[in-house]
Specification:
The protein is globular. The strands form 9 sheets. It has an 8-stranded mixed beta sheet. With about 650 residues, the chain is of the alpha/beta class. It has 21 helices and 32 strands. The longest helix has 17 residues. The structure holds adenosine-5'-monophosphate-propyl ester (PRX). The site of adenosine-5'-monophosphate-propyl ester has 21 residues, from helix 12, strand 20, strand 26 and strand 27.
Length: about 650
């Protein structure tokens, strides 16, 4: 084994010099797109090109005649005179075309259970679920929360909302019950679909009971209905009138439910994501444009064919799950693998076991997961036959070349192209990547803007920077899957995305460089957003959770570079009065953050500090905190109110008085 590992190291070391990887010939020979024609296609009139794409890829009840409408910019509209239904496009049309027996999801439970859900079955479940929602008075435009593990019911719940025009608001399963309550409150959700218990690595968590607790402490009168999926089957408290077992409600509901034709701009979902303040942003996506680009990118970027088996390892609670587990793959009639569990449970080779078991051909994951797999060792994937794989993808954060090469060699057997896809919750769909049969991949470099997407790298004043120079990523023309607004907060929408560079140019929030071939390297966020294992969090959100602890006077949070998770949360904490920082208090604070936000937000490092570096006007200088945490020489500290504070922090870090998470 040791020899194997050394050989692999040596080979990866040799490959590190290879800057570009052309499409593997066998792949390119059968790929959908093999030359630049697709790139040339949009030509001058990009909106007209998108109109053609949407007519081809979706089934419209009323075909749109207009493409982009910028008259209310930045509240752009796409395909506004068209009507369609997302659930019809994802289900009915495939069943009507005789593909009802095709598997939509090969579902695998944590304990090894298997369930194949066909398109016909998913349609039947979706219709009954939609009718169950209707029976509780849910109507067009009402918000429905979804807090579910990775089970087929999660997809059916989203589609059931889409079927009747309700707007779903999915919350990632890793968030705390308090965060779920908050998201239901701010979106005025009328119903919530959740689960009795969730399973994680052999243990169960009483989800419904925990939600009951926060709702009892702070009731939410707007939340009239809670549907509970019977998943683990343990005893679960149910409140008369409000709570209903979903299986019983579905059994009592009529089997057929009309897929309501909806205007293209009808809201499809809200997804709360972190911004630079403590208050999450309710990113709003609508129907026609979103589905067009989710489906189009899923087909073209991943070279989707009829016989492919798709496996996206994301969670449905993130945008990747929305666009590339549910809407893109189902609109394209694809077969997917859905896995309930963690990547290392019941064993560290479970993903590769699933790839072998279901003959996965296209696999999409995050760089942080690849780095974890590298750490666990190549022996896990090598125990499985991965020969069906023909394309690999990554998303969520920059991928370091070494992880890229490991993925290419160990998982892809050097025959699979890798697409490094850059996008955001706001963009709805992939924006920058390579078309795998047509363009060379460059490890660590995302790629070029896709057809129909206009991306530039600008300086602070909005002027394009020179080739190879670092600047701010911007999108200079609207695109169909763009967010339409921040839920009930249009001012914040305009301010966050459209004020930096002026009318028509979308501020991304990432730093980037573009090379002479137009390839974009994404460097990272320029705002106070941190990216931990591809999960987006705001420093302010974590800070406000920490300062809510009675022993804390003040806190500043930064994203520190981290080998495993890309960035890790480090918190500089000043305690009240004469309180001393202890190991017990570190544990208490981490637990406190987990309860308020969720385990994903627990600081990896807590650094006690008597004071924080502040300018004379009281602004905390996080840049200096990052320098000291990452062991860099400190720059200019003369603007600080108390320049000595940095020296004290440096000393504290050097003497090791900083406990780290194990
Ligand atoms: O900083 C970029 C990073 O993730 C941010 C978007 O996060 P979120 O809205 O949670 O969506 C993640 C999944 C689409 C971006 O602003 N990011 C995403 N993909 C990449 C990336 N950074 C570098 N390379 C990528 N491929």
């Amino acid at each position: 084994m040791a020899d194997h590992a050394q050989d692999l190291e040596a080979e990866l070391g040799r490959l590190l010099d290879q800057e570009r990887f052309p499409p593997p010939p066998a792949f390119a020979a059968a790929a959908r797109v093999t030359d630049g024609t697709l790139h040339a296609a949009p030509g001058e009139d990009v909106p007209a090109w998108w109109l053609e794409q949407t007519r081809e890829i979706l089934d419209w009840k009323v075909e749109p005649t207009v493409s982009l409408d910028s008259s209310k910019a930045p509240f752009y509209e796409w395909f506004a005179d068209g009507e369609l239904n997302v659930s019809h496009n994802c289900l009915d049309r495939h069943v009507e075309a005789g593909r009802g027996e095709k598997v939509a999801f090969h579902w695998r439970g944590e304990e090894g259970e298997e369930r194949d859900v066909t398109y016909a079955e998913l349609l039947a479940d979706t219709q009954r679920m939609a009718n169950a929602l209707k029976a509780r008075g849910i109507d067009k435009g009402d918000v429905v929360g979804i807090f579910l593990p990775m089970i087929p019911e999660a997809a059916a719940a989203m589609l059931a909302c889409a079927r009747i025009g309700a707007v779903h608001n999915v919350v990632f399963g890793g968030f705390s019950p308090g965060s779920v309550r908050e998201r239901m409150e701010v979106s005025e959700a009328r119903a919530l679909i959740t689960v009795d218990q969730a399973r994680r690595k052999g243990k169960t968590a009483p989800i419904k009971a925990a939600l009951d607790e926060v709702l009892a402490a702070e009731p939410l009168p707007t939340l009239e209905t809670i549907f509970v999926v019977r998943h683990v089957g343990e005893e679960t408290p149910m409140e008369q009138g409000r709570d209903h077992w979903l299986d019983e409600a579905m059994a009592a509901a009529p089997a057929e439910c009309l897929a309501e034709p909806l205007p293209a701009e009808h809201p499809l979902f809200i997804l709360y994501s972190s911004g630079s303040t403590a208050k999450p942003k309710g990113i709003l996506h609508t129907t026609g444009g979103y589905l067009t680009q989710a489906a189009w990118t899923h087909r073209e970027v991943f070279d989707l064919g009829d016989d492919d088996v798709w496996f996206c390892s994301a969670d449905i609670g993130w945008v990747t799950g929305h666009s590339y587990i549910v809407y893109g793959p189902l609109a394209n009639g694809a077969t997917s693998v859905m896995y309930e569990g963690a990547p290392d449970y019941p064993h560290k080779g479970i993903w590769w076991e699933l790839c072998e078991r279901y003959g996965v051909t296209l696999f999409y994951t995050a760089p942080t997961a690849i780095r974890a797999c590298m750490k666990w060792g190549a022996e896990h994937p090598r125990e499985h036959d991965l020969s069906t794989l023909r394309l690999l993808g990554t998303v969520g954060e920059p991928i370091n070349p070494k992880a890229w090469l490991w993925y290419h060699k160990v998982i892809g057997g050097e025959r699979c192209p890798i697409v490094d896809t850059w996008w955001q919750t706001e963009t709805g769909a992939i924006m920058v990547t390579t078309l795998p049969g047509a363009q060379d991949a460059k490890p660590g470099v995302a790629g070029t803007p896709l057809p129909g997407v206009a991306v530039r790298v600008l300086d602070n004043e909005g002027k394009e920077v020179s080739t190879g120079e670092q600047g701010l990523l911007a999108i200079t023309d609207p695109w169909p899957a763009m967010l339409r607004n921040l839920y009930q907060d249009p001012d914040r929408y305009e301010e966050t995305y459209w004020s930096k560079f002026g009318p028509g140019t979308y501020f991304v929030g990432d730093a980037a460089r573009m090379d002479e071939e137009g390839y974009v390297s994404v460097i990272g966020r320029v705002d106070d957003v941190i990216n931990v294992s591809g999960h987006r969090l705001s420093t302010a959100e974590v800070e406000s959770a920490i300062v809510a602890h009675p022993k804390v006077a003040e806190a500043a949070v930064i994203g520190q570079s981290d080998e495993d998770s890309g960035q890790a949360i480090a918190a500089f904490v000043t305690l009240e009065g004469d309180l001393e920082g202890t190991d017990d208090l570190v544990g208490e604070l981490r637990e406190h953050v987990a309860t308020r936000i969720g385990k994903l937000a627990r600081p990896k490092r807590i650094i006690w500090s008597d004071d924080l570096p502040k300018t004379r006007s009281g602004k905390i200088m996080r840049r200096l905190l990052r320098d000291v945490a990452e062991g860099r020489a400190l720059g200019d500290v003369t603007t600080l109110k108390d320049p000595d504070v940095m020296a004290r922090l440096e000393e504290q870090i050097k003497t090791g008085a900083v406990p780290e998470e194990d």
